[in-house]
Specification:
By secondary structure, this protein is of the alpha/beta class. The protein contains 13 helices and 14 strands. About 35% of the residues lie in helices and about 20% in strands.
Length: about 350
């Protein structure tokens, strides 16, 4: 059997691994041993799992593989940001990008959950390429484990290619692996999941995890938001806000609103006032994001002075608002620029 036809172990939960070892006639405690090898010791082959007997390793290797694979390309920014391209889909026909962002004592990895995206936001490069499939839990968590600086990571954000909650089963499985004691044993406060507001998946994320949540808002007005984000027609922001109002974001868990600013569109005082009315009851903070131009975009970038005024107005209403520093724009790694293209990712290759 070819290696690509073997089922990857990476991304499996303890319960799933218990089913695997039971199927193979291995001791039940072997599942915990495999977890340690996968998520604590980070092995790349079954042969490295030396506390499993040779016969049991052979049984495992006959049907399964670890599932680790290195990025195919990397691009390095002048600001230290690194963008990695991973081939996906078994045959490697598709690709996604992950972005490593070092910042003093923090190191954040922005990971992808889909190849392309169905959401069709007209300011996003990923959305323009259409949808080519959701990643498996194995493919998602491989990004975390297989970037060169994996062991330095302090935070992971599900803000790369795709809509995480359109692939909610895989995302929740990855979060379980990352936060469980048998997995990475990370605090959920080190993880943020971004969404345009898919309500069914958002409710599951809120109920089944304690990770931080970031909602892509970009306009507080229904018709305007619908014109740039088609999801507004199916799941209006007012319904998203109503759901969020039932959860507590005043303590450890954080709710953020992502707000890209476009010149002359959503950058005036009226938008700031409407945004404040929407978000203050939710205890949300706001990240203002400079628009990063993409080919053919009809939007312009709001100037720095306008963004500062908008930030200060929100702060005056008691809303914590910050202007996010752009990172990796010179390698097309900033917000909205990921496209999963080899040519775009290969300016500096490993």
């Amino acid at each position: 059997m070819e290696a690509t036809q073997l089922t990857p172990l990476l991304g499996m939960t303890l319960g799933q691994l218990q089913a695997v070892v039971a199927e193979l006639g291995m001791p039940r405690f072997s599942a915990g041993q495999i977890c340690r090898w996968l998520y604590e010791k980070r092995v790349e082959s079954i042969d490295e799992m030396t506390d499993l007997s040779k016969p049991n390793r052979a049984k495992l290797a006959a049907k399964y593989r670890v599932g680790r694979y290195a990025p195919a390309h990397s691009a390095h920014s002048v600001d230290g940001t690194v963008k990695y391209l991973f081939a996906t889909g078994g045959d490697g026909a598709n690709a996604v990008e992950s972005v490593y962002i070092p910042d003093d004592d923090r190191a954040t990895l922005c990971i992808s959950t889909q190849c392309g995206c169905k959401m069709g936001c007209n300011f996003c490069m990923t959305g323009r390429q259409g949808f080519h499939g959701s990643l498996t839990a194995s493919e998602i968590i491989n990004q975390v484990l297989s970037v060169p600086d994996s062991e330095r990571l302090t935070n992971v954000v599900f803000m790369g290619m795709g809509e995480p909650l359109d692939n909610v089963d895989a995302v929740l499985q990855v979060v379980e692996v990352m936060t469980a004691q048998w997995g990475f044993a990370w605090s959920p406060k080190r993880i943020t999941v971004s969404t345009v507001g898919l309500l069914p998946g958002l409710k599951r994320l809120l109920d089944e995890t304690s990770v931080h949540v970031a909602v892509s808002v970009h306009s507080p007005y229904h018709e305007e938001r619908a014109s740039i984000m088609p999801v507004e027609n199916a799941y209006p922001l007012r319904r998203v806000a109503a759901l969020l109002s039932g959860y507590d974001f005043r303590h450890q868990r954080r709710l953020s609103a992502e707000y890209i600013m476009w010149k002359g569109i959503n950058d005036d005082d009226a938008h700031a006032e409407a945004l404040a009315r929407l978000l203050k009851p939710l205890g949300a903070r706001v990240n203002l994001i400079r628009f990063h131009a993409i080919p053919g975009a009809k939007f312009g970038t709001a100037d720095a002075a306008t963004m500062v005024r908008f930030r200060d107005l929100l702060n005056s209403h008691g809303i914590i608002c910050t202007i996010r520093q752009s990172r990796g724009e010179d390698i097309a790694a900033a917000c909205g620029m990921l496209a999963g293209k080899v040519a775009a990712s290969a300016s500096t290759n490993d």
